[in-house]
Specification:
single chain, 329 residues, mainly alpha, hpI Integrase, Chain A, 2 domains, three-stranded antiparallel beta sheet, 3 strands
Length: 329
């Protein structure tokens, strides 16, 4: 039996960050996937996670774990597929280190991913967006911070990781605009030039931010970098407050990514160019950006105006005489 702990340690400490130069976000996501897997396996076999053996992580167990994710944890197919991707990546690493596990690895690699529904991207209307931006109290320090973060999400279309990772030196002002250096997903940086109103929001936060030991732009109440969970909490709080004036907001699941989708649709409707949306959001492939075309109704209206539908022969339905219908029946 082979202990799995040394192999998973080498995978997370050497293979991903050094040999593959994976981003910190990827390393964290893979580590979390294995944390869930090993907790599930240790409960199943009644042993501590550090005592697990490689041979115990076989195809039937992985399938049982994936079923556990969807039935007990309530994960969707996309999350299930992401966890499976992490497991397969580790198994490809193992097959060169433990040749005796080749058959076990082969069976795990043959587990298919689930097909996922292509849903319409969720977004906010102009009225809903304005209510959320107006929810924070601009007379308090944390209110100014919250409003600035929300304003950046809606106008710059930032991911949560990009927002909380912004540093002081990533912001520069060039009247009347503001330059924003965004460290995107997969270490793909981009520069955004934002409007005067956004620059004023950021200036207002910088005026009350104060000194801190961390270089990040946005801080929590303890003067440290705000976390993903911290931003999600303040977003839920302000959405709930806005829902008092707009009940339709309470029916929506407003996540940080919904703010990003809202920004994308605003840009698409303003420019009509999907390539500009892809550049603004930092998409690696324009195929990802094409999801917004299925939501933008302005594209459908232009089709209606430019295409003449086939004409039907006019006619009028005349019901048969009631007496004749009775006789025929």
């Amino acid at each position: 039996m082979t202990d799995i702990a040394p192999h998973i340690a080498a995978f997370l400490r050497q293979r991903l960050p050094v040999e593959r130069a994976a981003s910190q976000h990827t390393c964290d996501a893979y580590a979390y996937a294995f944390q869930i897997l090993f907790n599930f396996t240790s409960q199943k076999f009644g042993v501590s996670p550090s005592a697990l053996k490689l041979e115990q992580i076989d195809a039937p167990l992985v399938l049982e774990f994936l079923e556990h994710l969807q039935t007990e944890r309530g994960n969707r197919p996309r999350t299930r597929n992401a966890r499976l991707t992490a497991i397969k990546s580790f198994m490809r690493f193992v097959e060169y280190r433990v040749p005796s596990a080749l058959e076990q690895v082969k069976r795990i690699l043959s587990i298919p991913v689930q097909k996922t529904d292509v849903r319409l991207v969720a977004h906010l209307t102009t009225e809903q967006c304005k209510l959320i931006l107006d929810a924070p109290d601009p007379t308090t320090r944390l209110g100014i911070r919250d409003r600035t973060m929300l304003h950046l999400c809606v106008t710059a279309g930032l991911r949560v990781s990009e927002l909380i990772g912004l540093r002081l030196d990533d912001v520069s002002f060039k009247s009347p605009y503001m330059n924003l250096h965004v460290r995107g997903k997969g270490r793909k940086d981009r520069i955004l030039i934002l409007w005067k109103t956004v620059a004023e929001s950021v200036r207002a936060w910088l005026a009350v931010r104060g000194e801190a030991l961390v270089p990040e732009l946005f801080l929590n109440a303890r003067g440290k970098q705000i976390t993903r969970a911290g931003f999600e909490y303040l977003l839920r709080k302000h959405v709930a407050k806005s829902g008092e004036h707009c009940p339709s907001l309470l029916e929506k699941r407003v996540s940080p990514h919904v703010l990003r989708h809202t920004c994308a649709l605003n840009i698409l409707q303003a420019t009509g160019d999907i390539r500009k949306v892809a550049l603004w959001l930092g998409h690696e492939s324009i195929q990802t950006t094409e999801d917004y075309l299925r939501v933008d109704v302005t594209e459908r209206i232009s089709v209606l105006e430019s295409v003449t539908p086939p004409q039907l022969r006019p006619g009028r339905f005349r019901p048969p005489d009631k007496l004749i219908s009775l006789l025929r029946g």
